[in-house]
Protein backbone atom coordinates (compact mmCIF):
# COMPACT_ATOMS: atom_id res chain seq x y z
CA UNK A 1 0.00 0.00 0.00
CA UNK A 2 1.27 3.49 -0.85
CA UNK A 3 -0.06 6.94 -0.08
CA UNK A 4 -1.09 9.11 -3.01
CA UNK A 5 0.61 12.13 -1.39
CA UNK A 6 4.35 11.66 -0.75
CA UNK A 7 5.40 12.06 2.85
CA UNK A 8 7.41 15.25 3.33
CA UNK A 9 10.25 15.27 5.88
CA UNK A 10 8.94 16.88 9.08
CA UNK A 11 9.17 16.48 12.84
CA UNK A 12 7.48 13.86 14.99
CA UNK A 13 4.76 16.17 16.32
CA UNK A 14 3.58 17.25 12.86
CA UNK A 15 3.49 13.66 11.61
CA UNK A 16 1.52 12.63 14.70
CA UNK A 17 -1.12 15.27 13.94
CA UNK A 18 -1.40 14.04 10.34
CA UNK A 19 -1.81 10.44 11.49
CA UNK A 20 -4.53 11.32 13.99
CA UNK A 21 -6.60 12.97 11.23
CA UNK A 22 -6.68 10.00 8.81
CA UNK A 23 -10.02 8.22 8.25
CA UNK A 24 -9.00 4.88 6.68
CA UNK A 25 -7.26 2.02 8.47
CA UNK A 26 -5.18 1.16 5.41
CA UNK A 27 -4.11 4.81 5.08
CA UNK A 28 -3.22 4.91 8.80
CA UNK A 29 -1.06 1.78 8.58
CA UNK A 30 0.67 2.87 5.37
CA UNK A 31 1.38 6.41 6.54
CA UNK A 32 2.57 5.13 9.92
CA UNK A 33 5.30 2.85 8.55
CA UNK A 34 6.45 5.47 6.04
CA UNK A 35 6.63 8.02 8.86
CA UNK A 36 8.49 5.61 11.16
CA UNK A 37 11.08 4.95 8.49
CA UNK A 38 11.38 8.68 7.75
CA UNK A 39 11.97 9.88 11.33
CA UNK A 40 14.38 7.07 12.31
CA UNK A 41 16.44 7.00 9.11
CA UNK A 42 15.88 3.26 8.64
CA UNK A 43 16.72 1.70 5.30
CA UNK A 44 13.30 0.08 5.16
CA UNK A 45 10.40 -0.91 7.37
CA UNK A 46 7.34 -3.15 7.52
CA UNK A 47 4.23 -3.46 9.66
CA UNK A 48 1.69 -6.25 10.21
CA UNK A 49 -1.60 -4.92 11.63
CA UNK A 50 -4.23 -7.22 13.16
CA UNK A 51 -7.89 -6.16 13.28
CA UNK A 52 -9.30 -9.09 15.28
CA UNK A 53 -10.73 -10.93 12.26
CA UNK A 54 -9.57 -11.58 8.72
CA UNK A 55 -6.12 -11.41 7.17
CA UNK A 56 -3.68 -8.95 8.80
CA UNK A 57 -2.82 -5.80 6.87
CA UNK A 58 0.76 -5.68 5.59
CA UNK A 59 2.45 -2.41 4.64
CA UNK A 60 6.05 -1.49 3.95
CA UNK A 61 8.35 1.43 3.23
CA UNK A 62 11.59 1.30 1.27
CA UNK A 63 11.53 -2.39 0.23
CA UNK A 64 12.38 -2.79 -3.49
CA UNK A 65 9.51 -3.99 -5.68
CA UNK A 66 11.24 -7.21 -6.72
CA UNK A 67 11.97 -8.13 -3.11
CA UNK A 68 8.46 -7.08 -2.07
CA UNK A 69 6.90 -9.53 -4.53
CA UNK A 70 8.83 -12.41 -2.95
CA UNK A 71 8.06 -11.16 0.56
CA UNK A 72 4.33 -11.39 -0.18
CA UNK A 73 4.39 -15.04 0.92
CA UNK A 74 2.87 -15.36 4.40
CA UNK A 75 5.68 -17.68 5.50
CA UNK A 76 8.25 -14.98 4.75
CA UNK A 77 6.21 -12.36 6.60
CA UNK A 78 5.80 -14.62 9.64
CA UNK A 79 9.57 -15.11 9.77
CA UNK A 80 10.07 -11.34 9.63
CA UNK A 81 7.55 -10.35 12.32
CA UNK A 82 8.46 -13.25 14.64
CA UNK A 83 11.45 -11.11 15.67
CA UNK A 84 9.23 -8.52 17.37
CA UNK A 85 8.66 -9.09 21.12
CA UNK A 86 5.12 -8.98 22.48
CA UNK A 87 5.63 -6.53 25.34
CA UNK A 88 8.62 -4.24 24.69
CA UNK A 89 10.74 -2.92 21.85
CA UNK A 90 13.96 -4.61 20.73
CA UNK A 91 17.07 -2.86 19.42
CA UNK A 92 19.94 -4.90 17.95
CA UNK A 93 22.92 -3.12 16.37
CA UNK A 94 25.67 -5.64 17.07
CA UNK A 95 26.48 -7.89 14.10
CA UNK A 96 27.13 -11.15 16.04
CA UNK A 97 23.89 -10.63 17.99
CA UNK A 98 21.98 -10.04 14.76
CA UNK A 99 23.22 -13.31 13.35
CA UNK A 100 22.42 -15.33 16.46
CA UNK A 101 19.17 -13.69 17.64
CA UNK A 102 17.29 -12.46 14.55
CA UNK A 103 15.57 -14.72 12.02
CA UNK A 104 15.72 -12.79 8.77
CA UNK A 105 13.96 -13.72 5.50
CA UNK A 106 16.46 -14.60 2.78
CA UNK A 107 14.52 -12.39 0.34
CA UNK A 108 15.50 -9.20 2.22
CA UNK A 109 18.82 -7.37 2.12
CA UNK A 110 21.41 -8.53 4.68
CA UNK A 111 20.54 -7.21 8.13
CA UNK A 112 22.79 -4.50 9.58
CA UNK A 113 20.64 -3.12 12.42
CA UNK A 114 17.13 -3.85 13.72
CA UNK A 115 14.34 -2.16 15.69
CA UNK A 116 11.22 -4.18 16.51
CA UNK A 117 8.23 -2.60 18.27
CA UNK A 118 4.84 -4.07 19.31
CA UNK A 119 1.84 -1.70 19.28
CA UNK A 120 -1.33 -2.28 21.31
CA UNK A 121 -4.78 -0.69 21.46
CA UNK A 122 -6.42 -0.88 24.90
CA UNK A 123 -4.04 -3.70 25.94
CA UNK A 124 -5.17 -5.77 22.93
CA UNK A 125 -2.42 -6.75 20.50
CA UNK A 126 -2.64 -4.63 17.38
CA UNK A 127 0.54 -4.63 15.29
CA UNK A 128 4.18 -5.59 14.92
CA UNK A 129 6.63 -3.07 13.46
CA UNK A 130 10.04 -3.90 11.97
CA UNK A 131 12.60 -1.27 11.01
CA UNK A 132 15.98 -2.26 9.61
CA UNK A 133 19.37 -1.05 8.41
CA UNK A 134 19.78 2.41 9.88
CA UNK A 135 23.38 3.27 8.88
CA UNK A 136 24.58 4.29 12.36
CA UNK A 137 22.29 1.96 14.31
CA UNK A 138 19.00 2.52 16.16
CA UNK A 139 18.68 4.29 19.52
CA UNK A 140 16.15 4.43 22.35
CA UNK A 141 15.15 7.87 21.04
CA UNK A 142 14.20 6.20 17.74
CA UNK A 143 12.00 3.76 19.64
CA UNK A 144 10.34 6.56 21.63
CA UNK A 145 9.67 8.54 18.43
CA UNK A 146 8.00 5.53 16.80
CA UNK A 147 5.93 4.90 19.94
CA UNK A 148 4.75 8.53 19.82
CA UNK A 149 3.59 7.98 16.25
CA UNK A 150 1.92 4.76 17.42
CA UNK A 151 -0.17 6.74 19.93
CA UNK A 152 -1.43 8.97 17.13
CA UNK A 153 -2.11 5.94 14.91
CA UNK A 154 -4.10 4.18 17.64
CA UNK A 155 -6.14 7.35 18.17
CA UNK A 156 -6.94 7.43 14.46
CA UNK A 157 -7.90 3.72 14.48
CA UNK A 158 -10.21 4.26 17.48
CA UNK A 159 -11.91 7.11 15.65
CA UNK A 160 -12.41 4.95 12.55
CA UNK A 161 -13.86 2.17 14.71
CA UNK A 162 -16.18 4.62 16.49
CA UNK A 163 -17.58 5.94 13.22
CA UNK A 164 -18.13 2.45 11.82
CA UNK A 165 -19.82 1.18 15.01
CA UNK A 166 -22.78 3.57 14.87
CA UNK A 167 -25.94 1.50 14.29
CA UNK A 168 -28.83 2.50 11.98
CA UNK A 169 -30.99 2.87 15.12
CA UNK A 170 -28.63 5.47 16.51
CA UNK A 171 -28.65 7.31 13.21
CA UNK A 172 -32.46 7.29 12.75
CA UNK A 173 -34.60 6.29 15.76
CA UNK A 174 -38.25 5.50 15.13
CA UNK A 175 -41.08 7.56 16.64
CA UNK A 176 -43.42 5.86 19.18
CA UNK A 177 -46.54 4.30 17.69
CA UNK A 178 -50.05 5.55 18.55
CA UNK A 179 -53.27 3.71 17.65
CA UNK A 180 -55.60 6.60 18.56
CA UNK A 181 -56.99 8.83 15.82
CA UNK A 182 -54.76 11.90 16.08
CA UNK A 183 -55.96 15.47 15.90
CA UNK A 184 -54.10 17.95 13.70
CA UNK A 185 -52.47 19.49 16.79
CA UNK A 186 -51.49 16.07 18.18
CA UNK A 187 -50.02 15.13 14.82
CA UNK A 188 -47.88 18.26 14.83
CA UNK A 189 -46.80 17.64 18.42
CA UNK A 190 -45.73 14.06 17.71
CA UNK A 191 -43.98 15.13 14.51
CA UNK A 192 -42.00 17.70 16.48
CA UNK A 193 -41.16 15.09 19.14
CA UNK A 194 -39.99 12.59 16.51
CA UNK A 195 -37.86 15.24 14.81
CA UNK A 196 -36.27 16.20 18.12
CA UNK A 197 -35.53 12.53 18.91
CA UNK A 198 -33.93 12.07 15.48
CA UNK A 199 -31.65 15.03 16.12
CA UNK A 200 -31.02 14.08 19.76
CA UNK A 201 -29.63 10.54 19.28
CA UNK A 202 -26.95 11.34 16.68
CA UNK A 203 -26.04 14.51 18.58
CA UNK A 204 -25.59 12.48 21.78
CA UNK A 205 -23.42 9.92 19.95
CA UNK A 206 -21.41 12.72 18.37
CA UNK A 207 -20.85 14.37 21.75
CA UNK A 208 -19.48 11.12 23.18
CA UNK A 209 -17.13 10.66 20.22
CA UNK A 210 -15.89 14.25 20.44
CA UNK A 211 -15.19 13.89 24.16
CA UNK A 212 -13.30 10.62 23.55
CA UNK A 213 -11.24 12.21 20.77
CA UNK A 214 -10.37 15.23 22.94
CA UNK A 215 -9.29 12.95 25.79
CA UNK A 216 -7.06 10.87 23.52
CA UNK A 217 -5.59 13.95 21.82
CA UNK A 218 -4.79 15.40 25.26
CA UNK A 219 -2.88 12.21 26.11
CA UNK A 220 -0.88 12.52 22.88
CA UNK A 221 -0.19 16.18 23.64
CA UNK A 222 1.13 15.29 27.10
CA UNK A 223 3.33 12.57 25.61
CA UNK A 224 4.78 14.99 23.04
CA UNK A 225 5.36 17.65 25.70
CA UNK A 226 7.46 15.22 27.74
CA UNK A 227 9.99 14.83 24.91
CA UNK A 228 13.19 16.92 25.05
CA UNK A 229 12.65 17.99 21.42
CA UNK A 230 9.03 19.08 21.92
CA UNK A 231 8.04 21.99 19.68
CA UNK A 232 6.03 24.66 21.49
CA UNK A 233 4.31 25.94 18.30
CA UNK A 234 3.10 22.39 17.59
CA UNK A 235 1.89 21.99 21.18
CA UNK A 236 0.03 25.30 20.85
CA UNK A 237 -1.67 24.04 17.70
CA UNK A 238 -2.76 20.89 19.51
CA UNK A 239 -4.08 22.97 22.41
CA UNK A 240 -6.14 25.01 19.92
CA UNK A 241 -7.60 21.82 18.43
CA UNK A 242 -8.48 20.51 21.90
CA UNK A 243 -10.17 23.82 22.78
CA UNK A 244 -12.16 23.68 19.55
CA UNK A 245 -13.23 20.11 20.30
CA UNK A 246 -14.35 21.16 23.78
CA UNK A 247 -16.57 23.89 22.33
CA UNK A 248 -17.98 21.49 19.72
CA UNK A 249 -18.64 18.95 22.48
CA UNK A 250 -20.54 21.58 24.47
CA UNK A 251 -22.69 22.46 21.44
CA UNK A 252 -23.41 18.79 20.72
CA UNK A 253 -24.52 18.22 24.33
CA UNK A 254 -26.85 21.19 24.15
CA UNK A 255 -28.30 19.88 20.88
CA UNK A 256 -28.93 16.48 22.50
CA UNK A 257 -30.64 18.08 25.49
CA UNK A 258 -27.93 17.02 27.96
CA UNK A 259 -26.46 20.50 28.38
CA UNK A 260 -28.09 23.16 30.54
CA UNK A 261 -27.19 26.27 28.48
CA UNK A 262 -29.46 26.79 25.50
CA UNK A 263 -31.94 24.00 26.39
CA UNK A 264 -35.60 24.84 26.91
CA UNK A 265 -38.81 22.98 27.57
CA UNK A 266 -41.31 22.82 24.72
CA UNK A 267 -44.54 24.80 24.87
CA UNK A 268 -47.79 24.53 23.01
Protein architecture, described:
It is built from nine helices and five strands; from the N terminus they run ααββααβαββαααα. The protein is α+β, with helices and mostly antiparallel strands and 268 residues long. The protein has two domains: 144 residues, Beta-Lactamase (2-Layer Sandwich), CATH 3.30.450.40; 91 residues. It has a five-stranded antiparallel β-sheet, with helices on both faces. Strand 4 and strand 5 form a beta hairpin. Helix 1 runs antiparallel to helix 2. The N terminus and C terminus are likely disordered.
Fold blueprint:
Blueprint: H1 12-21, H2 25-40, E1 44-49, E2 57-61, H3 65-71, H4 74-81, E3 90-92, H5 95-101, E4 114-121, E5 124-132, H6 140-164, H7 168-171, H8 184-225, H9 232-256
Antiparallel strand pairs: 1-2, 1-5, 3-4, 4-5
